[in-house]
Each structure stands twice: as C-alpha cells, then as structure tokens.
Automatic annotation (TrEMBL):
<protein>
    <submittedName>
        <fullName>Small acid-soluble spore proteins alpha/beta type signature 1</fullName>
    </submittedName>
</protein>
<dbReference type="InterPro" id="IPR001448">
    <property type="entry name" value="SASP_alpha/beta-type"/>
</dbReference>
<dbReference type="Pfam" id="PF00269">
    <property type="entry name" value="SASP"/>
</dbReference>
<dbReference type="GO" id="GO:0003690">
    <property type="term" value="F:double-stranded DNA binding"/>
</dbReference>
<dbReference type="InterPro" id="IPR038300">
    <property type="entry name" value="SASP_sf_alpha/beta"/>
</dbReference>
<comment type="similarity">
    <text>Belongs to the alpha/beta-type SASP family.</text>
</comment>
<dbReference type="GO" id="GO:0006265">
    <property type="term" value="P:DNA topological change"/>
</dbReference>
<keyword id="KW-0238">DNA-binding</keyword>
<dbReference type="InterPro" id="IPR018126">
    <property type="entry name" value="SASP_alpha/beta-type_CS"/>
</dbReference>
<dbReference type="InterPro" id="IPR050847">
    <property type="entry name" value="SASP_DNA-binding"/>
</dbReference>
Length: 66
C-alpha cells in the first residue's frame, strides 16, 4: 500500500500548518521559515518541529481524557 502525504482529514491541513508555525516560533526559527521557506530548513530543525507537534497533540488528547 502506497503512503500518502495527505492528512486523513483534509480540513485539518490548515490547523496543522498553524500549529507548525506556532511550534517554529516557540523554537525561534519562525522568522527563518517565513523568509526562506521550509525547504531551506535542516532536517534536524524540521524533526524538532515535528516532535514538538506530536508532543502537543498527545498532551491535548490526554487532557480530554481527564
């Protein structure tokens, strides 16, 4: 089965992009992303942003369970 980069819920794409920029600003790399784009970022920076996004999503989910 081929992998797809499409979100399971297409309407969530904008929310994920907002969250990505929010995390980038928390990490202090948002200005570089705005000026140069994601393609110029190192894989370490992109991984850091993705890791923080997953951490935030898990925290949000766990808070709904309580």
């Amino acid at each position: 089965m081929a992998r797809s980069n499409k979100p399971v819920n297409p309407s969530a794409e904008n929310a994920l992009d907002r969250m990505k920029f929010e995390v980038a600003s928390e990490l202090g790399i948002a200005e570089h992303v705005r000026s140069s784009g994601w393609a110029t970022m190192t894989s370490a920076d992109c991984g850091r942003v993705g890791g923080h996004m997953v951490r935030k999503m898990i925290e949000q989910y766990e808070s709904t369970l309580q």
